[in-house]
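Might I ask for a little of your time on a matter of protein folding? What I wish to show you is a protein chain and, alongside it, a tokenised description of its three-dimensional fold. I should value your view on which stretches of the chain appear to form regular backbone elements. You will find the record immediately after this paragraph:
***
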Amino acid sequence: MKLFSRYNRINIAASIIVFVVGSVAFYVVLRAVLLKQLDASLRTEQTEIISYVQMHNKLPEVVNAYNQQITYVVTNKLQPGTIYYSEKATDPDSNEMEWMRKLAFDIKVADKNYRATITKSQVETEDLLQLVIIVGAGMIALILLAGYVINRMVIKRLWKPFYKTVEEVEQYQLAKQQALQLPVSGVSEFDLLNHRLISMTDRAQQDYQVVKEFSANAAHEMQTPLAVIRTHIEALMQDENVLQHHDKSIQTIGQSVNRLTRLNHDLLLLARIENGQFPLQEKIDLDKIILQKTDELAELLASKRITLQMQLTPVYISCNAHLAEVIVNNLLNNAIRYNKDGGIIKIELTSHQLTISNTSLLPALEKEKVSQRFYRHPDTKADGNGLGLSIVKQVCAVTGYTLQYDYHQGLHIFSITL
């Protein structure tokens, strides 16, 4: 859930609770005030009746006015005090049951005890309360709606720099060695975040550059010792006496040196690609490169009894000849190395895509790891260093192509969108 949505939920829920509680409290207070005013009007009538009795020693004549009635009832015993209460009674004017506010008190007139009851209708009070509640509820709804709209507009505008930062960070690539450019928003928190992100990416670039230079230098420095070892191995293999006693050891050393040489070559190639040392403006005939590589690998395909199926369309791409050969060579080598005897390799080339698929004894690979450096499936027994697909991915990254892996009906499918 987005922060804005969560904030809106909490804000609206809290506002509704506050407004409901406030509305109830307002209703109770307003009703008490209106009843108090109505009771004051009843007390005024009571005072006039008492004053009239004191002056004339008789009850005043009953004159019932609009919304007011006065009744006198003879009682046996005087009850002290005044009683205020509300009850539903029939309104003589409308002949309907309505809420009435009543004041009852006992009074002695000419040695007789009377209970006087003054009644006033609460209809106007209730109508006023209802009107106030309706207006209040409408105002509350309007305030909530306005608050939601304003919050949505204001907060969306306030958070725009944050989403701009997220977008820039998402598009940032360390390998391109470009500084992270983040705008100044004017909001202290966002500017602080941008400043910290820029500092972090600058440090990461420096560390990345150091590691990359170290890898390139180490791979470069390894070339001479590897050449020396290979020369001595060849010399040992020409000595029959040594070869008779140490044939397997020399072969093992030779295989390890060859593997280390390939690894060294691949690491150097990756470093050169990342450093942008290959021009990409050459016009390359991709279908001819594929035909050339398949001719070179024809004997290897025949030795493993692999059937090659090709559907090639003449395609020209803007790339580097060496990098184009690297892509085709690595994908074909993988398709042969991890294939099974009597397997199939399919090559399809269109103006938009190159697809190389192959059978294999291996199950589906992990898409997230397939192009990671040194990744090899646990069940694989073929010789390799796990850098072939990493190199292909890196070449695709610098040329703007896209590498995709799929597994369908026993085929490992590698597609490059041109």
